[in-house]
Specification:
It is a single chain. The chain is an alpha+beta fold. β1 (39-42) and β2 form a beta hairpin. The chain is elongated, with a radius of gyration of 32 Å. It has helices at residues 5-20, 23-33, 64-76, 92-111, 114-127, 181-186, 234-241, 257-263, 340-365, 410-418, and strands at residues 39-42, 47-50, 130-138, 144-148, 157-158, 169-170, 193-197, 200-206, 211-213, 225-233, 278-286, 297-301, 306-310, 322-326. It has 10 helices and 14 strands. Strands 9-10-11-12-13 form a 5-stranded antiparallel beta sheet. Strands 8-3-14 form a 3-stranded antiparallel beta sheet.
Length: 419
Amino acid sequence: MPASLRKLQDQHALSKRIQESHWARWSLNAAAYAGQFWVIWERITNTVRPFVRNENKVYHTTNFVKKNVRADIANLMQTRPSVFVVPSSSDEKDRNAARAGQQIFEYYWDKLVLTDELARALLYSRIFWDGFWYTGWDSSLGNSYDVVTNPDGGLYRANEEGLPDEGGLPVRTALQDSRFRQVFEALEGQVPTKSLAEGDIVVEALTPFEFFPEPNVLRLDKMQWCTRGQVKPRDQVEGKYGVVLKPVTDMAAGVLSGWSSNTSDMFGFNPQNNVGEVVTIYETWYRPGHKEYPQGGRCVWTEEKILHEEKTFPYPHGELPFSQFQADIQPTSFFSGTPVDDVREINVEYNKLMSQIIEVAKRNGAPTILVPRHARIDPTVIGKPGGVLHYEANVPDSAPRYLEGAQFPGWIQQLPETL
């Protein structure tokens, strides 16, 4: 059964509701990590808003959240992950294959800079409760070559002897030698070509704002489908799929509204700065065995139309191409918890208390002075450290003396050490 845009939108709406119940905590945690503690969550607009500040008040900020998160990630990344490939038998061929598999892993770990992607996913898991890895194949990456095509535009394939073979490999025009003579003779001298990229592995870290799970399923490995959301340049999407799309004009109403309008700007990315140039696209994956996609499948779509559909699963392992990084597993929710929730609440109270202490210290250090109206005192020096105050003394030739300031109460001096 072909995919229905309406059906995709309906199942996405259900999945999005699961997300929305967590937006407030995710966004406030992200704000705290960025050092923004004097903010509130506005339920009407689903956004983080700063306090309306009183210029006569102190708003002290100490960031324990970032310190806690960085220490946690540093502990988790002290050693590089190791992979051991076990041969299926003691045969030398299988042992060599196992060694090759381990070397391939090491090669791609460095090539794709997976240490950085791992750190990013762990960061998301500590701030937003969950981080994700998308691991897939991008056919547009790698070196490009001109290959022979059929008259209908499909790839012309041949076996190692150069004979036409639907199960063979594409024929590069640079290999027009005796091995493939029959291929070009069959085309009667007409050699239509097109550019074809080699493709390559891609690994990307995702926030939970970009991952939409199947409702009522608590484990990723048990899901029959899930959706990934992305904000991409409009011209890039239009060029890849050969369509014309409407640009995003209201990010707050977009699919990724939780990420786009609440927290992305705290990490240096805000699609609202590019309104009119970006679109939101979804990629829905179906595991083999799904009732509408028995062989698995994938749909790429927007709110306007379906851009691409595959009715067979592209990977032989049959698993959804996502990995979940969890900070604290919750028994009743797909999305986990994080210690940052507790640290943030303590940090907020600490900042409020320290702000009050600083206000009291300033008032006690430079208190308001009551001066009789008839006293001949220069008001410009009152309250200035080291100031000299001239006054009319009752005793002639009085010696100068220091004016004692107000003393801090003992509890103010001891409270910062206690905290």
